[in-house]
Write a structure and sequence with these properties.
By secondary structure, the protein is an alpha+beta fold. 27% of the residues lie in helices and 16% in strands. The chain contains five helices and seven strands, in the order αββαββαβββαα. It is elongated, with a radius of gyration of 29 Å.
Length: 197
């Protein structure tokens, strides 16, 4: 039979007096009435509902600026089609299997506009331009369903993909080169884009 050696014993430290801690008191939250959305959650709830409608094939209304995108508005037509074709070439980056490589462009045939989705913050540094207007915050934009790639109605001339937006520098240069025609005044654009929500 084996005997075990006694375990080492730690010499205790004399008990220290602990400070008195006041009892925790929790404030009763103000919940409001059932079904009421908290003030800071209203915008988030609206965006979630909008995203769910978009997934079901509806329009998606998004704020411009922030982390998403700004929008450059130009006239549509054959000249603008030339700009789209040139941006396809510029953004293809040697990938021959991508004939439509341009960043996202929405066409509104009723108003005769192309809406070029550009990086957020572009509107803050976009100088006045004869053929284009750039808008960001505080405007909103209604995007067509992703499957809507042909008329009637507003449609994707170049679909939204997660890997690119339209580069504003080359877009500006090409608009000057192709002379896409006059655009509506910025005030009118802002009214239309904001009222879409």
């Amino acid at each position: 039979m084996m005997t075990r050696a006694p375990l080492p014993h730690r010499v205790g430290v004399p008990a220290q007096e602990r400070p008195v801690v006041p009892e925790a008191v929790f404030a009763q939250p103000e919940w409001g009435s059932p079904g009421e959305v908290a003030a800071d959650m209203g915008t988030l709830a609206d965006r979630v509902r909008s995203l769910m409608a978009f997934q079901r094939g509806g329009d998606l209304v998004l704020p411009l600026g922030g982390f998403l995108f700004d929008v450059v508005v130009t006239a549509s037509g054959p000249e603008a089609g030339g700009v789209v074709a040139m941006l396809d070439e510029i953004q293809r980056c040697g990938q021959q299997e991508r004939p439509h490589a341009c960043g996202p462009v929405v066409e509104d045939p009723e108003r005769g506009w192309l809406l070029w989705l550009v990086p957020p913050g572009t509107s803050e540094c976009w100088a006045p331009h004869r053929y284009a207007t750039c808008l960001g915050r505080p405007h909103q934009l209604a995007l067509p369903p992703l499957a809507q790639t042909d008329p009637p109605g507003v449609f994707w001339r170049r679909r939204m993909r997660g890997d690119r937006l339209v580069p504003p520098g080359p877009l500006r240069e090409l608009l000057d080169r192709f002379r896409t025609g006059p655009v509506p005044h910025e005030t009118l654009l802002g009214t239309v884009l904001s009222s879409i929500s």
